[in-house]
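Please, structure for the following, as C-alpha cells.
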Amino acid sequence: MKLSNSTSFATTGRSRNGEPWVWLTAAGLTFGVAMALGLFLLILIKGASSFWPRRIDLFEISAGPAAEKVAGYVTQETQRRDTAGTLHKEIQVFRGNKELNGEAFKFIDRSSIQSSSRPEALLLVERLEYGPAIVSAVALQTPAGKIPAGSSEFEQSLETILDQGRVARKKLLAIERGKIGAISRELASLARLEKSGNPDPPALAKRRGELQASFEILQQEAAAIRKTLAESSFTGITADGKEITYPAGTLLDVFPSNRAGFFERVGEMLLRMTRFLREDPREANTEGGVFPAIFGTVTMTLVMSLFVTPFGVIAAIYLREYAKQGAFVRMVRICVNNLAGVPSIVFGVFGLAFFVYFVGGGVDRWFFADQLPTPTYGTPGILWASLTLALLTLPVVIVATEEAISAVPRGVREAALACGASKWQTIQRIVLPASVPGILTGIILAMARGAGEVAPLMLVGVVKLAPTLPIDGIAPFIHPERKFMHLGFHIYDLGFQSPDAEAAKPIVYATALLLIVVVVGLNLTAILIRNRLKKRFAVSSF
C-alpha cells in the first residue's frame, strides 16, 4: 500500500510539473503552424485571384447636377466618415484608361450609384503602355479598309491583328536586342582596340564601315515592321463617350469579360499566368511578367550554394577532425554562431566594400584596364551578390556539417583505421558519405534563407529592371558581372516604391506566392536528393 501511494504521488507530481508544459508547447506549435498556414492561404488566394478575369460593371453615378458613367470591376469595399461623422460605404473600381483619367482607380460612394449593369459590349484591352483599358469596340482599321464592330468579320480580323502584332514584336526584339546589340558590342570592342593602339587602323576602319552598313540595314528593317504595324489599329469608346484608337503594335490582348463563359475565363486565367511567368516587366514593373526576377533568384541561389557548400564543409571538417580542441576552437565556434545573428545589411555593407570595391576593383585594374574608368567587375553584380549571401549563410552550413560529422559512430571510424585507412581516407570514404544527409540539411536551410534575403542584395547587385540576363546566348554565355532582378526586391519595389501602389497590389501578392513556390521547389529538390543519399549510405553509416 505504501509503494502504491508513493507511485501515485510520483505520477501526480510528474503530471503537475511536466504535462502542462507539454500541452502548452503543443498549443504554441499549433498556433504557429496555424499562423503560417493562414498567411500562406492569404497569399495563395490573393495571388491566384489577381489572374482571374472579373466581370466589368457599368455604374451610373450622380456626381452633382450631372450623371457620370464609370466602367470597371470592383477591387475592394471600404468605409469612411466625413467631417460630420456620417459613415459612407465606398467601393474601389478599377476603370483603367490611365492616359485619359490620370488614375486607374476610382472610389465611388454606394449611395451615389443610380444603377449598375454588365453590358456584353465592354472589353478589357491589354496594352504595352498605360496599363489595361476598358472600352466598347467601335471599329478596326486594316490595310484592306475599315471594319465596324457589328460586322461578322470583326472578331476574326481582331484576332489576326493581335497575332500579327505578337509576331512583329518578336521580330523587333530579335533585331534590336539580338542583331543590333551584337553590332554595338563589336563596335565597342573596336573602340577598345583603337584605344590600345592596334597596329592595323585601316582594317579597323573597314570593319567599322561594314558594321555601320549592317546597322543601317537593320534599322530599315525595324522601321518597315513598325510601319506595317501602324497600318492597323483598334478603335474603342469609353463609358463616358471618349473615343480612342490603339495602334496594333501596342495591343497585347482583347478579352470580352462579360461575354466569356466559365471555361473561357479559366483559359484566360491560365494565359495570364503563363505571360506572368514568361514576359519581362513593364510600366514601372506594375504590368507584364517577372521572368527576369525568377531567373535571377534561382541563378543567385544556386551560385550561392556552389560557393557556401565547399567552404562550409571544409571549415567544419577542420574544426571537428583536425583542430586541437581548446579555448581557441571554442572561441571560433562562438564567433561562427554569433555570425548567424548579425543583421543581413551588415553583410551587404561588407560585400560592397570587400567584394565589389576591393576584389572587383583589383580585377578591373589587372585585367580590364583598357575599359577604365568604366568598371567591369568593380560594380555590383550577381557574382558579388552570391558571394555575399554565401558568407551570410556560411554559419548555418558549418554548424549543420559539424553536427552531421559528430553523429557518425566512433566504431565506424575505428574500424576503418583498423583496416589500415589513413585519417583522411576515413573522412573521405566513411565520414563524409555518412554525413551527406546532414550536410544537405544545412544547405537546404542556407538556400531557404539566402533566396529570401533582400537587404544585402540592394547594395551588391540587385536592380529594379535588368535589360539582360546573367546567362544568355551571347559569348561567353555566362556574365557574372551583370546586375540582376530578384523576386524579393521586386516585392519591395512594388509595395513601397511603385508610382501606382494600388495597381501594383495584385502583382505583389502574385510575386510573393511565386517566391514561396520557388523557395519550396528548391528546398524540395534538395530534400529529395538528401533522402536518396540517406538511403544509399544508410549501411555505411551504422
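Residues 144-231 form one domain. The first strand starts at residue 57 and ends at 63.
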